[in-house]
Queue: 2 jobs
Job 1
Amino acid sequence: METHSYAPGEIEPHWQDEWRKKEAFKIPNDIGTLKKKPKFYVLGMFPYTSGAGLHMGHAKNYVPTDVLANFRRMQGYHVMHPMGWDAFGLPTERTAVQENEHPAHITKRNTETFQQQIQRIGFSYDWSRKIDTSLPEYYRWTQWIFLRLYEKDLAYLADVPVNWCPALGTVLSNEEVKDGKYVETGDPVERRLMHQWMLKITAYAERLLEDLDLLDWPDGLKEMQRHWIGRSEGAEITFEVKDRDSEFTVFTTRPDTLFGATYCVFAPEHPLVAQVTHPDAVSEVYNYIQEAANKSDLQRTDLATEKTGVFTGAYAINPCNNEPIPIWVADYVLMTYGTGAIMAVPGHDERDHEFATTFGIPIVEVISGSQKPIEEEAFEGDGVCVNSDFLNGLRVDDAKEKMIAWLESEKKGTRQVQYRLRDWLFSRQRYWGEPFPLAHLEDGTIVQLPDDHLPVQLPPIDAYKPTEDGKPPLARADEAWVKVKLPDGRIATRETNIMPQWAGSCWYYLRFLDAHNTDAPFDSALERYWMPVDLYMGGTEHAVLHLLYARFWHKVLYDCGLVFTKEPFQGLLNQGTILAESFQDDAGKYYYPHEVERNDDKAVVKTSGKPLHVQLEKMSKSRFNVINPNDVIDNYGADALRLYLLFIGPVTASTPWQDAGVEGVYRFLQRVWRLVVDEQNGELNEKLTAAAGTTEPELWRELHKTIKQVTEDTESIDKMNTAISQMMIFVNTATQVKSLPTETVKIFLHLLAPYAPHIAQELWHRLSEAGFIAHAAWPQYDESVLESATITIIAQVNGKLRNRLQLPADATDKEIEEAALADERVQRFIEGKPIRKVIVVPNRLINIVV
RNA sequence: GGUCGAGUGGUGGAAUCGGUAGACACAAUGGACUUAAAAUCCAUCGCCCAUAAACAGGCGUGAGGGUUCAAGUCCCUCCUCGACCA
């Protein structure tokens, strides 16, 4: 008996094998064939192949995209649905160092694990398009695209502060530094200026902002990108330094408050600091700058921290009234934002107010309308100008315009748009990344290597750390690599920085279209056919950086005439996170579930009895609360895993994992199995008949209802949970009918196929159908089947439900009213009271107001 | 502090345009089957009141107010939680 029950462990590997052997999901690359059908490009953000392997978050991302791909394929689309590996980067390099292996070796191991784990879930990827960003055949084109950016003057060298760890002799990323220390070893980290490659993403700020309007993205996500780009309108104003032959400019969004500017502030790094500082203040200013150098931007600008600063002894001239105002140096002003200098208006800016209060600088009210005295609190709202000469009486907006016009006519300032977005720090002093296709001549000029030199392959080196003299690891390579002969015979030294981990993921969605092209990154005709990506799905952690970087590169490619869409990702969704219970003691230490004993809502450590806090948190290794997708597959199969991940809630919602819930969908799959298979003997269920589906009218109707709902819910992506609910209702109905038309079951299997492809395929096969159900056409529903002769009308009295009436579907409002008034239960509540109003909502309800 | 989002049974979650609140599951309880257990099947399953039982009734979507014939859904105030930014 057991041998004939639902056994995902047997059928799933079998069909995965068949799909692989018969290349069931291979997408043609011939443009003629492609053009015969419409296209749909659905992409899950490819994984970073760390040694930790596939986690539940990946599955929550890839299951819905796979369902959608299957669904569109059955609807007659060519579906681009690829998978690949984001493989360069620091975690792999670190593992390589720990294990004393080459990063390429670690990467190969990790990507093989990932592929094997992903394939067990039964996704319909075209594996022939698999890419790996760390392979020369891929990064050759990453380098090629970089050269196009370089040619457009979008890459430049600059001195930038980086996190430098003297003990390790290396540069660290922001994520690796906490409280001025390297998180792994606790070694101190300092900020140091280093020569770095930058990409001029700010040149595209306006277009990155404007073109958000073209996209079908969630509003919240667009808003995050807008904030990040941070466009603000205002003015650049020039201040002269008193008694010195120098001047500086500030950017302000509030030129209307210029009369209230009572001091100026330079960022500690501002080049004019040394020049203007009075001899008496030099040592104090110097010490302050030293201190500020080791603080992060976040520490410096945090509203909660106390403002610090030091007076330079110099004065600036306020251009609108020629008053001398003191120049301070303070670290709440950043060199990287605006001009690195500000005019401070303590009356109308919270931070300036705090600073002025701390240091006893005068506060002047120039906008009236505050509830509190200006000495107590800055007033940042709208109001009318006061104490402002020619601006007096104007509202803020008008005052801004008038002040800008005045500044421009006096040649003391200009209208200016400012962005929060910074240029992109694009080099890393590491090994495991793309080498730059650039070289340096002895005279300091930089030359780009010709396209036919690509790829610039990573050289073998003896250690993955910087050289003694602080050069990046690639400088350890032998002369044969470091020195390069240019086409004109000159010898140059290669650039030894590498590109950041983001580089490879900036264009991978294009490489999938033509993954094996050796003449170009991708074929132009294919790009025109497939782009844009119709649905891109991934975690919120990429809502800003990755998406902004990829959009930037895409726009550059557009300007180069290499792509024909302005934006790469037309549709986008963020899947929610998976939460799970975690156990933490008072000291913050986490415990594994198997170390914990639970009584009701209390939890204690099994061995010590120490009480623990139980909380729902994002599933993650560091919280000791992960559930491995592979374990779930071992116990319940891939189809159950897929269904459960969709059934727990909307794709975009964050929902807690519950082991018991997996049982529920597993039982559903067993019921589906028994619709077709007699578990006693393995034969087909005796209830199955060759009769037409219409011979079971109630079931036939439920089927069409199910087709309708599954079609609509799958299309919407976010409602796949209710699609599954409806399939459950259908199966519950089908389990109860006396005879089961095979036609009805086969149509149902089509609906199930995108969600639970293995069981659908197996039952399809057992019903003597050849080929793959994945290639069958998506069923249509018949609206006339859904219509029924009678409808249920809700009868309300004064808005309260009193009875349900079964009435003919074509009953008129009048007839509904008569039926309701005749109803005994309704009558009881009317009790002869006068009827004031009757509202009939067609097909739904009648409300009688008495 | 700002912006955005969310608060519905014991749990996850359903509920087009304002129109049957709690679909579908999980857990729990009772029953059938079984030597027994598992599995399966059937039943109950928001709270209160009433009852031998049933029919019925009242209250219920974080709190308070409002609009409406009708509010989980719209408006106002507040509380709590989450995400992002500062």
Note: Chain A has six domains: 34-124+502-574, 148-225+424-494, 231-419, 578-618, 660-785, 788-849.
Job 2
Amino acid sequence: MSYATQELIDALKAARAAKGLSQRALSKRTGVPQSHISKIETGGVDIRLSSLIELARTLDLDLKLVPCKAAAAVDSVVRSTAPAVAAMPAVKELNRTLDTVRNLRYVYPDLSELKKLQNSLQALKGLRNVGRELEALRDIGRPIRKLKQALEKLAGERQGRAEQQKATPYAARIPAEQLLALRRAVGTVQNLHNQLVDTIPEQPLPPRPAYRLDDDGANDDG
Amino acid sequence: MSYATQELIDALKAARAAKGLSQRALSKRTGVPQSHISKIETGGVDIRLSSLIELARTLDLDLKLVPCKAAAAVDSVVRSTAPAVAAMPAVKELNRTLDTVRNLRYVYPDLSELKKLQNSLQALKGLRNVGRELEALRDIGRPIRKLKQALEKLAGERQGRAEQQKATPYAARIPAEQLLALRRAVGTVQNLHNQLVDTIPEQPLPPRPAYRLDDDGANDDG
DNA sequence: CACAATTATATAGATTGGCATATCATTATC
DNA sequence: GATAATGATATGCCAATCTATATAATTGTG
């Protein structure tokens, strides 16, 4: 496989990872079978143009033929658009929430919902267009911070009562109400993620219960 | 074939045409068989990435994967590099010569050498790096303008003599000397073209007779 | 250890890629 | 003016390889 080819394939792979899409999820969106995506990413197959374009489109990438002379300038332009997002307040909010979650996970390391939440947020961070979703991100972060406060208060109370905390299954360590809130948060994040990954025919972003409706989305599995 | 695919193929085709390369010439340079190039350009075949990259490379194009968001900016950059050439004095000289030739063709519409010359000049215009060849272009334009003057003088003389101009074959309407000069001009232009298309292992540009030496070059046929 | 999700492999079928050649256009020669 | 010749592009045929369906290996989780 030529260098240029490898470079393109790597870019595709990176883009998929940045969006937090699994090969299967990407497959569903593109119509390109998952097994192909696997081969493409690993096996150095000489992919056909239609497949490449399908994959690129779904990853919000455009395949362009630019004069070599302009290649450097183009790279510069591309670089200048991507990290612009990183400086925006939306990402700051996102990072803040991510910190909160990491903090929570330190206290509740076995809570799978927290891990899921962290992963979803991380995936969200990889999306280019997340920068415009400040409000949505605040709506996500606020309840999570509230949740953290509630849990801290709870921990304080429990400390007084000195219960047998280790024996109880970890999921039971926090009241059902908070657990539900947590799951709702995961759902909201993944919902937003799906919205941003690209316009998919699904219900708008207002929080929905945590149960599944379909399995088209990326990673929005239980 | 998808729209995006078609667009890329068209771009390739245009790039080839702009370089004045025949399918066969491109084939020689890329290793991609001419029959494929034909199929690619016409038959809507789902070309493989390696072929696409080979063709692109030879046409001085880079295949880039850019975020859709940055696509417009990239287009702008590409546009801004290409026509920069169009404003340069070298291109002005080229256009001047082209005008002269068009003018001549109006008077001698059947003279195949003139058509060839015009085509060669047009192909030259499509080359990115022609902008640096002001002197060479002047060397081309000067004899052509001189040729035109000579022919105009000749036409004036003939008008007086009132010969049967229509009956004589068109090639005979101008004296052998001028015809030779014309052919020399064609050769010079195509020579320069070959030089610029990209560095190919051939003799340098000093004017050579119009006969063929090999068939590797683009269009440097008789 | 079972279960689920993600990724990799195997075999069957479709299509490209390459070779030889046909078609079409233009030029040269008689 | 007809015909041959040169060059450019398009079309059949066959091997090579990609794409697709199904399945297996791998990894993480409870």
Note: Chain A has a mean pLDDT of 72.
